[in-house]
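Notes taken during the Thursday session

The instructor put the following on the board and asked us to keep it in front of us for the whole hour. The protein is Ketoreductase domain-containing protein. We were told not to look anything up and to reason only from what is written here. First, the residues (349 in total):
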Amino acid sequence: MAFVLYFLFAIVQSSSCCKKEFIMKLHEVEKCAPSSDWNVLYWVLGSILMPIALPLAIINLWQRFRAQKYRNQLPGKVVLITGASSGLGESLAHVFYRAGCKVILAARRVQELERVKSDLLALDVDPAYPPTVLPLDLAELNSIPDFVSRALAVYNQVDILINNGGISVRADVASTSVDVDLKVMLVNYFGTVALTKALLPSMVKRQSGHICFISSVQGKFAIPQRAAYSASKHALQAFADSLRAEVANKKMYVSCVSPGYIRTQLSMNALTGAGSSYGKMDETTAKGMSPDKLAELILQCIMRKEPDIIVSDLQAKIAYYLRHFLPSVYFWIMAKRALKLEKAEKKAN
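Then, after some discussion, the predicted structure tokens were revealed:
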């Protein structure tokens, strides 16, 4: 049983834990063991848990080894980040810049990109490479090939592409104009796909590269009044899954990160069903995860070359599993939520 506890403990320990501390903690666990009357139960539990704990421990240690190895290789890597002018994109810029990467900042608002660049240059980082600012509008599909040419001209390559740019919408299906549906799909899906496709040949030629898509838990399951946004993220998830399989034999990696609510200006910048600015901070968004924390987790995801991760609170994870294993319960909950939102909207008006 102690052997099982040893490996279970190894799973949750950080890689920095020294051997002496590890053994001390194991002895503490053993001291807390019940009397010999429980030996039979110990043996039974050990027989059940050992086949689970041992592989998990090995996988965990292997992932940590790969992550540390890749982190040592990060300095000097060229990282292109879309939507880098604020929010999660800005936090990602800070995380990869501090890791010694050559960051290329892309977004529509050049002035904000210059602000982010100035903030990065003020950091005490070694090695430090001056960030590059390139304007990018994902809705302008015809301009994307030229953008990629300019991005490649900076360092002759892009090692990591982080597709973070996007917009959201707050409206039910009936009140959302088709033009809004088109705009959300254009930016969140087609713009991202066009950028990825334009950059892909250079990565394939070098037999190297990592493409990371910042999706959403709403790309895993849909909720009321997010139909357009959720549809665009579902499409992105499918595209990422297909691309991952196609480039697996080319020494390339594809990650899809699905966060829950993030404490950014996403809801403030969201569209209404008519296409105007929503301009409100949702309560769920205000209580969301810090973009700095999420950026660190995305860095770890890329270092570990994880194909698909969900980063959210327990509620979103429960919804995800309900959608797949108890769909009738999930549909009932969503119907109740839609009714609640409808009543709240009528009351507000």
